[in-house]
């Protein structure tokens, strides 16, 4: 389960579940997020039965949250959550032991630290979720190489405090060493 602030793309809650969620599970995930952040006025959900559950709806009403269901054909309503899940699957290197619920939850929390502070978003003009949510300056102190040729030129994260020293040496490949990952430390090597 993933809860995202649509304005800042900040992931306010993630729950790893071993089975299909029920209304109680969805409410528990929401309440953990509400403990850390203020309850939202509106909560956009898909048409899952766990969101139509009486327990979930009463819990939302108790926090003063109005639940809005995305229409079946509207992909934009839940696009931020779907995009995050796709990004998570693509960017987080998976190891054989990651299917253990506690280990997976721990790895996702590690990833979120990096995602919030260092990963620029095109929809945020190159800013990170922390920059938008907390009005922070970019976490990157050194020049950052942006591999996408059409990145927004005025973005603070794409154009940090110091200019890049030189152009990259060609095609780059991400190499992750070992089973453990300590984001955001990566090593770039020239691809064949």
Structural summary, described in words:
By secondary structure, the protein is α+β, with helices and mostly antiparallel strands. Helix content is 33%, strand content 12%. The chain is built from six helices and six strands. It has helices at 23-36, 49-52, 54-62, 79-91, 101-118, 129-133; strands at 2-4, 11-14, 42-45, 66-69, 172-175, 187-190. Helix 1 runs parallel beside helix 3. The termini are far apart.
Mean pLDDT metric? 77
Q: Find the count of extended strands (DSSP E, 2+ residues).
A: 6
Span between termini: 38 Å
Largest sheet at a glance? Answer: 2 strands, antiparallel
Q: Based on CA inertia axes, which overall geometry fits?
A: globular
Q: Which segments are poorly predicted (pLDDT under 50) over 5 or more consecutive residues?
A: 158-163
Count of DSSP helices?
A: 6
The order of strands across the largest sheet is 1-2
The portion of residues assigned to helices is: 25-40%
**Helix-strand string:** EEHEHHEHHHEE
Q: Approximately how much beta-strand content do the residues carry?
A: 5-15%
Alpha-beta classification:
alpha+beta
Calculate Rg over CA atoms. Answer: 19 Å
